[in-house]
Design goal:
single chain; 361 residues; alpha/beta; 434 Repressor (Amino-terminal Domain); Rossmann fold; 3 domains; 5-stranded parallel sheet; 14% strand
Length: 361
Amino acid sequence: MAPADDHPSRRPTMREVARAAGVSPMTVSYVYSQPARVSAEAAARVRAAAQELGYPGPHPAARSLRQGRVGSLGVVLGERLGYAFDDPQAARFLAGVADVCAEEGVGLTLLPTTGAPTDVERVARAVVDGFVVWTTSDDDPVLDAVAATGLPAVVHAGPQRRGLPVVGIDDRAAAVAIGRLAFRGARRPVVLGFPLDRARARLSLTGDSVGEVRFPVTRNRWEGLRDAWTQGGRPAAELRLAVCPVNDAAVGEAVAAELLAGADRPDAVVAMSDELALGALRAVADAGLAVPDDVAVTGWDDSDAAAGAGLTTLSQSLRRQGAACAHLALGRAPDGPVPDEWRVVERTTTRRRPAGPGTPS
């Protein structure tokens, strides 16, 4: 019986494999890194010796240091980790990032942040070759932490920070376009919006009392929708904003149901996402109201579920944006121009003509 190993957890070395195979340590290295430079016979001896000794190959960290990269792209999510899988739009975006990672042969590291002081340390210590930051707030300290690493980095949909490039569409211009359609024939519209800041409070506001909005996506979409409403000759105070704490259909349904049961029932619900809009459609149906005659509804992103629901929405390619972000974060040129196109997709949940003279169009 062979003697017991005094150090069962010790990792065999490349030099030990070379000695057992009767080759040089450089030959062992070539077997794992440049196999074309080694004869089939020598490679077979090296792999047999490695198997006998339990040698798994060069340590990934050491190999990364030699190559000058670690082989992983970090995606910073200002959300819980499950958001990456639960939210259809986040999933589309991450699919675009993953497409590029697969092409480049690198891994994908998700870095969720929670607003805790440890967020900055987690980002600073991440072993990645570059960062993609999912849209966050103007005051999020992880932006400075990402910039301080000196690694290639890009922010999706903002905010701008220390020269980091931003990939995304012109949310304000797009909101004006969808707003003009959403407000057609409306007199008591409500916007179902994203959080205003990292506190993520649920709020009910009028257009003249919104105050500071620290999430650029929320801010730009709200300002565009307000522009569309006031350009039609109505005061901002007549446009309401119902702030939803999370982007979730169940939340959109609950908030819309509450509004529809109130004394000043909305006749248009303009949602900042398809998820919120789909929830609103369920609330309208449960209230026994007709879409769009009683209540018009619009969404944003043109998700797969939007078409089936006949939802009027704003289409953009989050998958292409994710791919562009990944290319930039890996220090590569994007595959074609950075995608910034969008279009309004009119379906059956909006009114096709104004209800009467003097209404926004």
